[in-house]
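Notes to self, Carboxypeptidase B2 (plasma):
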Amino acid sequence: MSTPLIWFVFMNLSILLKPGYCTETSDQVLSITPQTQEQVDILRNVSTHYETVLWQPVSNEYISTQVQVHLYVPGNSSVTVKAILQKHGITHKVLLANPNVLTEMQMKNDSTEPRSGSTFYERYHTLEEIYDWINRTAQDNPRTVKAILIGSSYEKRPLYVLKLSFNDRPNRKAMWIDCGIHAREWISPAFCLWFVHHSLSFYQQNSEITRILDSMDVYVLPVMNPDGYKYTWTAIKRRWWRKNRSISKSGFCVGVDLNRNFDVDWGIKGSSQNPCEEINCGPFPESEPEAQAVANFLRRHKDTVQLYITIHSYSQMFIFPYSYTFDQAENHNDLLEMVQEAAQRIKRYYRNTYTYGPGAATLYPCSGGSDDWAYKLGIKYSFTFELQDRGEYGFLLPPSHISGACNEALLAVKTIAVKVLEKTQAPANHHTI
Ligand code: 0X9
Ligand code: ZN
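result:
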């Protein structure tokens, strides 16, 4: 070999061997749509036997033909996983080529960076920051906001609900919004903060929020799963945690899916008794202190709470009961009309698409969810919102998208709450002589 050729080979080798050069070794999120039952089986196998995380669907039992799967593949499994896919003719797209960069972007709290231009509500916050915000919000608004301690988490963190109450008319009705059941869905707590901020800033400025707050108290639980949320902030590889952090009896696995732990058809569909699984329903209904605290509070307030909304992500969907059965809810048409109107307004104002319908038929059949439980408790207007996006960034929605995602969801909450008022408020009292 001539000297220049040796140099050429050597120099290129040194580039190739540089750490991080080879994209095959970085973490990625793949999008795969299985075409046949054989491909479904292979994907199920890959997601259980290799170090991967299913972003969507949440559990491999929901993988089926023609349904998009979003699979997080860490760098060290990348070559093997892609080889298996290729061997079986399963094509994939790279959804996110560098999720770690996006994760860091979400964690970067550039409040000290004045040029960032984003407000407090346009950033994601650590659990400690959210607790501080809860305290500050209650302290700064003593006449309208109260922080109510409704219980504590498995790791003994407090569960605070903010009660927004703008007048003290007798027989006031109420609505409830909870966020952060699932730890990795960071846009959800961000929405609860956004909603409270909007309520406090636009009462008597925006007609819809004014009408709502004049007629209802609002209970907001910003983080239902504080232990899980905290955990997702502690290391990049923990960013995908979904459940709470309770240790199973065998001590072998951690975490119960709080949205499978409610006492409605508990443990039957779309859930697992295996504590190692993402959709573990726990040892018995309301076994988890977080679910029990919410259930106890709602049981105590069931005569006033008329509207229940629980905030999740991602996929842009408005879901209503039932998820545990394909039976139609008794007020199905009212619920459908409400979400349809919310989706139409979002389309009109923000040009974004939300799908909607009863959970079992629209998403998947599933027992133990908080929406069905609240509905069966008697809260006849009960919804699960799945916020942005539809998989472009998934759980890694950049901070610059928070305002868009939250404004859409806010419009939906207001649309539905106003409709609930129209359906439930007694018509003006005409005095007869
Ligand atoms: O599976 C869930 O808990 C929710 N989807 S998520 O991707 N955020 O995990 C949907 C819940 C819908 N309602 C019920 N299953 N009851
Ligand atoms: Zn969720």
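- The radius of gyration is 23 Å.
- Residues 181-182, 185, 312 surround zinc ion (ligand 2) (CB under 6 Å).
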